[in-house]
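Cross-posting from the chemistry board since nobody answered there.

I work mostly on the small-molecule side, so proteins are not my area. We synthesized flavin-adenine dinucleotide and want a rough idea of how it might sit in this target. Sequence and SMILES are below. Is it possible to get a predicted 3D structure of the two together?
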Amino acid sequence: MQWDNTTLFSDDNPADRAFREEVRAWIAANCPKELCDRPLRIDPPELKPWHRKLYERGWIAPHWPKSAGGMGATLTQQIILFEEMSRVGAPTPYPHGLSFIGPLIIEAGTPEQKAEHLPGILTGDVTWCQGYSEPGSGSDLASLSTSAVLDGDSFVVNGHKVWTTNGHFADWMFALVRTDREAKPRHAGITMLLIDLKSSGITVRPIQTIRGDSEFAEEFFVDVRVPKENMLGSLNGGWQVANKLLGSERFTTGHPRNARCFSTRLGGSPNIREPHAIRRSCTVLLCLRSICWRSRRFIATPRVCMPTARHPPRWRQSSRLPAANSVSRPPNCWSMRRGRSAEAPPIS
Ligand SMILES: Cc1cc2nc3c(=O)[nH]c(=O)nc-3n(C[C@H](O)[C@H](O)[C@H](O)COP(=O)(O)OP(=O)(O)OC[C@H]3O[C@@H](n4cnc5c(N)ncnc54)[C@H](O)[C@@H]3O)c2cc1C
């Protein structure tokens, strides 16, 4: 197998190498070519057959435990799958179900919530969206005002969510709602609800972007009744639940495919030539690498960072362990060797 600069590890052990070869061959044989290397988002309906194939192969949820229907893959296997998909520009299924709400339901959901929601997320039959942002509440998420008032055995939800990726395709939304207006601090009055978007009182409107397509939607809630059983976590405990989820969101943001998409959006074509577009793309790429690197560093055991050919051999031979509290800057390469750690080279 040919090694190239798309892999994080340059030294797969025999089992991982065999897995990589298997993944590479399977993707080549099964991933529809027309879905590969698409610079723009692919709408969920078009992506569903590919999602289904990965599900049937058992690779749709490498990060989920086997007990929940996932693959229970090692971190290295997860990275290999991730890399092999992006190597050929294969689309990854949307993260809202598989990486955002799925793991949270596994961790914090009731047995009934797990039985109801996990199978549909795995098969791809049910599409999820994230209902956080509101017209008056973006970066300052704790100011959100969509309200949920307990009335008998259900919450009554009123408000407005916006910038919801795939909201107009979604069947379900995980939403942060305000359940205590007096809470101090404001974070302490927020709850997470799982909302069936077919419930009466919900209007979903796609938002046309400046590019002319609709990747977002907004949703209006008027006296929508959501069963009490659809609360995820505890009443007024939504902020803690949401924070766990943001960890996964940061990780998926670092997908190398995103750099490719940004490059294309900025440069106008996959073969960008304009110097300023290339400069901007490189900046975005470095930012994404940095996010990805930090996420991996956060969740992974220590590994050695191998220098690229541009860095001196002296550093290449280094195997000095970093201080326990040192988080080095991202190295200028993807290559890492398992088992030991070393300082990253200075970024020039
Ligand atoms: C690709 C994409 C997908 C998205 N998908 C979803 C989704 O699925 N679900 C969802 O709920 N939301 C989604 N969002 C919305 C996103 O989370 C919001 O854009 C974000 O919360 C920022 O809110 P805002 O746009 O209202 O900006 P604002 O919060 O109004 O910020 C505007 C600008 O002011 C800056 N700013 C804000 N506060 C401060 C401060 N205190 N100090 C200094 N600067 C500040 C910000 O950095 C920003 O540059 C998506 C956004 C994007 C771009």
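Reply from a structural biologist on the board:
Welcome over. Reading the output above for you: The pocket of flavin-adenine dinucleotide is lined by residues 129-133, 138-139, 163-165 (CB under 6 Å). The chain has nine helices and ten strands. Happy to explain the token format if needed.
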